[in-house]
Amino acid sequence: MPTGLIVKALSGYYYVLPDDSGRVESVQCRARGIFKLKGISPLVGDRVEFELTENGEGTVDEIFPRTSELVRPPVANVELVVLVFSVDEPALNRQLLDKFLVHTESAGLETLICLTKHDLRQGAGQAVSEEEAEAGEHLELDQVIRLYERLGYPVLVTSAKEGIGVEAVRERLAGRISVFAGQSGVGKSSLLNAMIPGLGLETNAISMKLGRGKHTTRHVELICLPTGGFVADTPGFSSLDFLHVDAEGLSSCFREFAPYSEGCRFRGCLHLHEPGCKVQEAKESGAIDALRYEHYLQFLGEIREKKRRY
Ligand SMILES: Nc1nc2c(ncn2[C@@H]2O[C@H](COP(=O)(O)OP(=O)(O)OP(=O)(O)O)[C@@H](O)[C@H]2O)c(=O)[nH]1
Ligand SMILES: [Mg+2]
Ligand SMILES: [Zn+2]
């Protein structure tokens, strides 16, 4: 039976790119009823076995074991997550960035931070409101980049408009399955268009009224890269639930806490108000970024609130 890769899922159909035969066209398939009975749904990124039916369509018969499974965006077997954030329009949202990082950490996935629309960066040095200054959001772009690089996350700065950094992103994606994730309007599709000549993904200006994107990309699709490998463009989203992270697990998703949390007086310290907490000390001394710590507290609150509700 032929095998292949699901590159798109739309309206109950799965589009399978066959492994052999050098075919570039995908086969439109239905999933066998048994999957529904077992409560399994095939995902984009799934490696499958399929059967051709008489009308040129096919049936997905078996899903091979997944190495990873993302809930949002729903993609299987991802090896690299590219977190796409624009330096402006919409403004860099560090809370959302830290939230995405909690998810990629808890899923154990390699992460690349991509800061787009570098051509708009002059806004970064402008006067800031008192609230922004208090929240630590006044950090210059360079300082933000250095902060995340120190945590061990590679950061690439790009401009699809000016063709900056496009080559570097292309190199990172070669030969594996990656996914682009980020808010609507940050320029995910534009960057992919700049990377792959002739791709022609739909892009759109952000809605000025709403101050956010209009969700130009509406489904998840794997795009075959000329350098080998696949990348998924995804619809933008700006809220994420903590589905698989509990209060104790959250702390380990903040990489920089690890060397300090070992020294906390209490085992299972949540680094809130506990005496002898080394993480709080490190935050006071500036060794841990104050805004990252603030986000940790906010996420902890969200997780506890969710637990209380169920
Ligand atoms: N100045 C500037 N604008 C850009 C750049 N990249 C994209 N844009 C603009 O940003 C807007 C949104 O771009 P898209 O590529 O559609 O954004 P997206 O992240 O795919 O959005 P969704 O599909 O809705 O999630 C468009 O108006 C683009 O022209 C850039 O490098 N510089
Ligand atoms: Mg898009
Ligand atoms: Zn502690």
UniProtKB/TrEMBL annotation:
A Pfam family of this chain: RsgA_GTPase
Domain of life: Bacteria
The record's free-text note on cofactor binding: Binds 1 zinc ion per subunit.
PROSITE patterns: ENGC_GTPASE (PS50936), G_CP (PS51721)
Binding site for Zn(2+): C264, C269, H271, C277
Occurrences of domain EngC GTPase (ranges): 76-238
Gene3D superfamilies: Nucleic acid-binding proteins, P-loop containing nucleotide triphosphate hydrolases, Probable gtpase engc, domain 3
Main localisation: cytoplasm
EC number: 3.6.1.-
Description of how the protein assembles with itself and partners: Monomer. Associates with 30S ribosomal subunit, binds 16S rRNA.
PANTHER family named in the record: SMALL RIBOSOMAL SUBUNIT BIOGENESIS GTPASE RSGA, SMALL RIBOSOMAL SUBUNIT BIOGENESIS GTPASE RSGA 1, MITOCHONDRIAL-RELATED
Identification of the protein by name: Small ribosomal subunit biogenesis GTPase RsgA
Organism listed in the record: Paenibacillus gyeongsangnamensis
